[in-house]
Specification:
8 helices, mainly alpha, about 0% strand, about 220 residues
C-alpha cells in the first residue's frame, strides 16, 4: 500500500475517532453535571445509587464497559444487534464512563465555592437556580477547566479502545494495515494524527482558560 493511500485511509478512520470524541463530550458533559447533582443530593437512596454508579465506572476498565454495552442486549435480553449498533455502543459506553469522571470534577468545583456566597445570594433574594447559574457556575467552570481539559485529552487517546468491539476507527485501521503490510508505518501515522488532535484540543482549552482569566 502506498504511503499516501495509507494516510488517506487513516484520515478517514480519524474522522470516525473525532465523531466518537464529539458525541462523547456532547453527552458526557451535561450528564456528568446531572450525576454530580445526584451525588450531592440530600436524598440518601439517590446519593447511594449515584455513588455506586461512579464507583463502577471508575473502578472497571473502559474496554470491559464497551464489551458489556455491546454484547449485553443480546446475552441479557436476547435482543439482536447488528453491525450498525457498534457505533451506538461505543458512544454509550464512552458517555457513561466519562460522565462519572466529569461528575466528580463538577462536584469538586461546586463544593469548593465558599458557602458564604450562597448565603449572600439568598439574602439578596436570589433563588437557588439563579444563584447557581449566575454566581456559582461561572466560577466552577473556571476552577474545573484544567481538570476537564485533562479528561478531554485522555478521551482523544481512549477513542482507540473502540477496537475492542471491532469498530473501524483510526487505531483499528492502523492495526489492520500494519498486520497486512508487515510495517509499523501505520502506527507512526496514527501517532501523528493523535498528537495533532491533542495539540488542537489543548490549544483551544488554553485559550478558553485565558478568556476566563478575568475571574482571577
Amino acid at each position: 500500500m502506498a504511503l499516501w493511500t495509507m494516510v488517506q485511509t487513516l484520515a478517514d478512520g480519524m474522522g470516525k475517532s473525532i465523531l466518537i470524541y464529539v458525541c462523547t463530550l456532547a453527552g458526557a458533559l451535561p450528564l456528568g453535571l446531572l450525576v454530580a447533582f445526584g451525588r450531592m443530593s440530600r436524598v440518601k437512596p439517590l446519593q447511594l445509587i449515584v455513588k455506586f454508579y461512579i464507583s463502577v465506572m471508575r473502578g472497571t476498565p473502559l474496554m470491559l464497559q464497551l464489551l458489556v454495552v455491546f454484547f449485553g442486549p443480546y446475552y441479557l435480553f436476547r435482543i439482536p444487534t447488528g453491525s450498525s449498533y457498534r457505533f451506538v455502543a461505543v458512544v454509550i459506553g464512552f458517555i457513561l464512563n466519562y460522565a462519572a469522571y466529569f461528575a466528580e470534577i463538577y462536584r469538586g468545583g461546586i463544593e469548593g465555592i465558599p458557602q458564604g456566597q450562597r448565603e449572600a445570594a439568598h439574602v439578596l433574594g436570589y433563588s437557588r437556580s439563579r444563584t447557581f447559574l449566575t454566581i456559582i457556575l461561572p466560577q466552577v467552570v473556571k476552577r474545573i477547566l484544567p481538570a476537564v481539559t485533562n479528561e478531554m485529552i485522555t478521551l482523544v487517546k481512549d477513542t482507540s479502545l473502540a477496537f475492542a468491539i471491532s469498530y473501524s476507527e483510526m487505531f483499528t485501521l492502523a492495526k489492520k494495515i500494519a498486520s497486512s503490510q508487515s510495517t509499523l508505518m501505520p502506527f507512526v501515522i496514527a501517532g501523528v494524527f493523535y498528537y495533532v488532535f491533542n495539540f488542537i484540543v489543548a490549544f483551544l482549552m488554553e485559550r478558553c482558560e485565558k478568556r476566563l482569566a478575568y475571574y482571577n
